Predict the structure.
Amino acid sequence: MSDDTRSEIALRVNDETFRLAVDNRRTLLDALREDLNLTGAKKGCDHGQCGACTVLVDGQRVVSCLTLAVAADGAAVTTIEGLADDGELRPIQEAFIRLDGFQCGFCTPGQICSAVGMLAEHAAGWPSAVTRDDSPQRAQELTEEEVRERMSGNLCRCSAYPSIVRAILEASAREAVAG
Amino acid sequence: MRAFAYQRTTQIRDALNLVAQHDGARFLAGGTNIVDLMKAGVESPARLVDIRSLALGEIAEAPDGGLVLGATVTNSSVAADAQVRLRYPALSQAILAGASGQLRNMATVGGNLLQRTRCAYFSDPSEACNKRVPGSGCSAINGAHHNHAILDWTSHCVATHPSDMAVPLTAFDAVVRYETLHGPGEIPLAEFYLPVGDRPDRETALPDGALITAVVLPAAAVAGRSRYRKVRERASYAFATVSVAAALDVQHGLVRDVRIALGGVASRPWRARLAESALCGGPATAERISVAAEVEIAAAKPLRDNAYKVTLARNLIEAVLTELAADSGEERNG
């Protein structure tokens, strides 16, 4: 029988291209973890509810557990393993370490990838549910309330939320200064 | 999960043909709902036709002054769109009140409309559910139904429609545009979702094999003065218990146009036409707003454990209209 339930795909992951033959049922999360041995993205709920599997696809944060690998064919994927620049941590990663943005660490790769995507969304002027300024033109300030709302798709069972919010706010301020 | 074929195409006609020619074929866009339901064994398509490469990813101006939202525009892009925020603010607010940043980046306009209920019995194949297996019964009607319908349900199904986005779209008289192999068609959103009746598995009036290509927002001055308010069991990232999208246009002290729709109360977004009629033409006073809410909610039939939704829906209608009326007053005085 001709097997049209498998596909040859190319994934560009952390600036390296991988060619894979996958069962169409393979999620991007499983392809990353099982086929490419990139185990940073975690399988928490596997239903898009916890955010532990968050990665960036073409620059946007998504849950990789509900993304089919075959549907990501040709896309550029960034995982937690690809965030550091030649071994030098990004400000957001450094801030999570310095400000205790985690306890057990299971949700941390998803938290950090989500934060990177979230900060880009905020910089682009995207509103959130707590953004009060109705004018589409004016950029809103990134407040603790904004961070909590924008990061609500990432659960932390250790409840390290206060430190996660601090780390994101601090890294965001430092990146703004660095321009 | 059942094994399935996958194809991606750039042409609408190719996508329609692929679905028409293969039994069990379904369209795939963001996948946030169907992939989840495939994992649960609720959906088991034999083939997925990925439509994200079709040219349906733009928001465009409509000739009548409205907006055309392409079917594969992401929820994030609709919510952030400057024209949507200016002319249909409740739509942006509703989308931002739903899901998470990650899911909104994946989910699309068309997929949002076609998402399935979040009734726990629907997504659990070990339970009876007429929506999933017609004729199998309804576990919810005497089960855990505190978050189920209070309006328009039948003994066959008491599930609610989960979409936030569809609530303001209903209030704004949006129209669903679709394409078939026999040509294009349109269905007003008010007629898009079928009443529950005795076949809750039949959810929409979309013809078999049709592909939603866009949702058209008609020009409506009143929509610029709109709000969405959602009550849920936690502060963020949860489905509505009850939500309200409302728009109010007051001219010379009289209500010239008013739109009200409810989410979380029925199998479809609930257009509150009785409340609208009760308010239109007179002043937007506290008493008239209260009467309008009461008139709409009078038809509610709560289940054993969700009578709280009746009070909540009435209070939400009152609260949002009171805010909108206050906004109108400030504009007049300011």
